[in-house]
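New to this. Please check this fold:
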Amino acid sequence: MKTRLQQNTRRDWRYRASGGGRRDQRGVGMLEVLIAVVILSFGLLGMAGLQISSLRVNQSAHMRTQAVSQAYNIVDQVRSDAVNVGAYDGVNVDLSQLFPSGQAAIAVNNPMITVTISWDDRAAGGQAAEQITVTTMLVAP
């Protein structure tokens, strides 16, 4: 014969299994919300990290684009003074106003002109020293 305690325990178990024991589930909703907030916060931190990385890479690409544009600008200036092309050989141009530690070196080996632009790209998340080289050939008019 079963005691009254054993019968009540069995009834309580059936009652809880059917969803009737609401008193024992207090705070479960709050726990679910807490877990959802923690997961959301990790996702937002990941998104912030991706945004920062994207900004660094974008800044580095912008500097590379500006370097290529500046190199072609220097080549056009040398090309426009075709009579004195030899005077540009070995000229170094300070580009520190455009780039961190920016320098441009011009080398003339008639009829070839080589412009090398170098700068420090660490601030933009790139390598310590970046370099762009543009080589072109002068054609007699």
In short: The chain is about 50% helix and 20% strand. The beta strands are 92-94, 103-109, 112-120, 129-137.
